[in-house]
Design goal:
The protein is mainly α and 204 residues long. The chain contains twelve helices and two strands, in the order H-H-H-H-H-H-H-H-H-E-E-H-H-H. The chain has one domain: Rhomboid-like (Rhomboid-like fold), CATH 1.20.1540. Strand 1 and strand 2 form a beta hairpin. The longest helix is centred in the middle third of the chain and has 22 residues. The radius of gyration is 17 Å and the shape is globular. The N and C termini lie far apart (45 Å). One of its GO terms (biological process) is proteolysis. Belongs to the peptidase S54 family.
Length: 204
């Protein structure tokens, strides 16, 4: 194994790499081999309020609605997560991801508590927290997006990301919890505020 190959291989033994591999494997199994797994992991506030599927508040982050949904989330996790984990350390990164996975679902838990038909899947809330925590540390870093040939500042990407989430949340038939994008972003910003207030001071 060459030096570059070894570096690439061991890069998956990081919080970002492990989350990416586990989420991708579980999501693919649920999408193509076990539809029952997808249904059991789906976040259903109506059931949670009635003492059922309480684990879905975090298990739903390991399954996705379709291949595109999975690909976009994992691309964002890899794009932002590696640098963020290196900056804040593995422990804080895992804590951020876990807290955001739950916290981003809480507003929906209340909003949809009387809707037996509502169900959502995806790691969008946790991914959004990672993206916005990254933006606090690297607001002027430039990103090359899949659909744009020109670099976009990280802060502008964040604004566009939230604008899309607000627009997409109007689709009542989607199984993607777009509201979690917004609350995940808030979680990421608040997390950095409490764990590293100096980062906010530098930003402001």
């Amino acid at each position: 194994m060459t030096g570059s190959s070894a570096t690439s291989f061991f890069s998956f033994f990081t919080p970002t790499g492990i989350l990416l591999v586990v989420t991708t494997l579980v999501s693919l199994i649920a999408l193509y081999f076990s539809p029952r797994l997808l249904e059991e992991c789906a976040f259903r506030p109506y059931r949670v309020w009635r003492g059922q599927n309480r684990d879905s508040i975090y298990l739903s982050g390991f399954v996705h609605a379709n291949l595109l949904h999975l690909a976009v989330n994992m691309w964002c996790l890899w794009l932002f997560g590696r640098e963020l984990a290196h900056r804040i350390g593995s422990t804080l990164f895992i804590l951020l991801y876990a807290v955001a996975l739950v916290a981003s679902h809480i507003p929906t838990l209340f909003k949809q508590r009387d809707n037996p038909n509502y169900a959502s899947v995806g790691a969008s809330g946790a991914i959004s927290a990672v993206v916005f925590a990254y933006i606090v540390y690297y607001p002027q870093s430039e990103l090359y997006l899949l659909f744009l040939p020109i670099p976009v500042p990280a802060w502008l990407f964040g604004v566009l990301y939230l604008a899309y989430s607000v627009y997409a949340s109007r689709n009542k038939n989607s199984r993607i919890n777009h509201d979690a994008h917004f609350w995940g972003a808030v979680t990421g910003l608040v997390f950095v505020l409490f764990t590293d207030p100096a980062a906010w001071a530098r930003l402001l």
